[in-house]
Design brief:
The chain has 604 residues and is α/β, with parallel strands linked by helices. It has three domains: 17-64 and 569-604, no CATH class; 67-207 and 529-567, no CATH class; 252-525, Radical SAM ThiC family, central domain (TIM Barrel). 43% of the residues lie in helices and 11% in strands. The chain has helices spanning 5-10, 19-22, 26-41, 45-57, 136-141, 147-158, 198-207, 247-259, 275-285, 294-301, 311-324, 340-344, 353-365, 370-373, 375-385, 406-425, 442-452, 473-486, 506-527, 530-544, 548-554, 558-566, 571-576, 590-601; strands spanning 71-79, 89-95, 101-105, 162-163, 180-182, 186-189, 210-211, 226-227, 233-238, 264-267, 290-292, 328-331, 388-391, 429-433, 458-461, 491-493. The protein has an eight-stranded parallel beta barrel, surrounded by six helices. A six-stranded mixed sheet has the order 4-3-2-1-6-5. It has a two-stranded antiparallel sheet with strand order 7-8. It starts with a helix and ends with a helix.
Length: 604
Amino acid sequence: MLHHPLYLSHFAYQAPQDDASASGSAAAAAAAADLATSKIHFSDLAAAKAAHRAAKLNAAAAPKKQAPRPVTESVQVTFADAADDSIKVPYHKLTLSNGDQILRYNVDVDGDTTVAQRPLVRAPFYAERGSTPKTQLEYAKEGVITKEMEYVALRESACFVEKIVDKRDFADKFGSDEGAEFLDKLVTLSRNHLLVTPEMVRNEVAAGYAVIPCNHHHLECEPMIIGKKFLTKVNANIGASAISSGVDEEIAKLKLSLKYGADTVMDLSTGLPSLMELRNAILRASPVPIGTVPMYEALDRVGGDANALSWDVFKGVIIDQAEQGVDYFTIHAGLTLDLLPHAARRLMGIVSRGGAIMASYMMQHDAENLAYANFEELLEICRKYDVALSLGDGLRPGAIYDACDEAQYGELRNIGKLALRCREAGVQCFIEGPGHVPLDRVEENQRLEEEYCHGAPFYTLGPLVTDVGAGFDHITSAIGGTTIGMHGTAMLCYVTPSEHLALPTAEDVKQGLITYKIAAHSADLAKGLKQAYKIDHAMSRARATFRWYDQFALSFDPEHAYEVWHSQMDEEDCAHEASFCSMCGPRFCPIRLNRRLQSKYGTK
């Protein structure tokens, strides 16, 4: 059983004292007993306040007994009628102090920061596929439900599944999920009660509305899905350079990203003589899809001289990375020669690094985009390995002034045509989006992407809704990310506080990911995804009954939530989980006052 470090470091269990040390006045014992019941049911405010004061004054004489604490443990989720045991999805099961249980998906359930080689979870899936397996899109178009599709359906359906055991106050409002059975180390779901079925997954993939990025050679990858109808995903960027870090540092960044919930990770490493070695280490240690921008390594291979780039160099990089197991490539193929004059009229021009490299080659050779001109050959490589294409926005706006111009939308129209070519070739693809966009035009970007790109999944950097959030761009971008996610964007690329200013630190990565997990979850609530509401309801129940430690455990950053609460609370109040916080105190706590409302009018 895994205990969250929060509860081990701050709340070591104290055994009750013996009868002699626990002896005290009858009044003190009565006051302590009254306090326990007053947490919820006192309607007499004066009596509640007196009981609280008496308990504090006589705390030394009262038994030192700690309330139950929430506990997190690793479990596996599978189908109730599973024909084999190859599909088991790792989850965290959080058991709250009142006995309620709720599942939370976490790819890094082992918590071991030394893992260099992940289990080959997808190896059993290939037993019957032969030496030339097809892409997930090809299987879906043929009507085949793959193991990856079943895995995805189970993973999406199990998110926030809960078992409510304490229904005394909430039986009329909440109930346990039907079809879910909580066993010791296993949770089973009935296929008849799945919120996301394998058939739904197949249909969305077949239509090109969703992608399951999982290279045939990345068997460590736990299948996940990116699509409008599914939980909004979050990508984190890592990457070494000649002056920043190496293999050990990048694996540490990967682990940090997994800890705080990254659904995919992009390796943007450049300038190292051992890029292949670094990428292999990242892939072998990663249970999430890994993406790259192959142009970065292509430029490295020609010594940083864009003039020396060629399709043969670029193709060689793509093949090498696909062979290693990279799950998706960002390719700036929609940045065509006719769009460069539009980019020249901008304030900020081209801010995409990959787009700038491609544009530099095009200008020096007065030639068309390498990837655009050789797109069919690119598709053949991606189809062979089932590498998804993230069709990159090399002309994304880098300033509010440049938002929604012809450079941006012209490229988007090009990308839409390429998306159709991907579908015809059996290659999965999704579409990258802006960038800096004012809030009133965020929805427009989602609408046009769906129109131009025929419903392909959208993946956006924010968007950032103002240019003046330096040092706080994780916030300015999360505003745009939540908004565009609400309207259908499938995945958000996180932005850290150091965006535009510096290389992100570990703390920046943490802040960026937590901010974006909140943004993605908020978008899921707005989209009406039923499973998303479960954890919010669990938090509300914990607040209504003053279960402080359950509230911390249900938050996105339990340690931070605890520290904020604990910093202004009396130690005795912390030990007894006081029925108030430092904002209102015991006298003006609205939750306690609401008990009088419920007592008078009932809770039905």
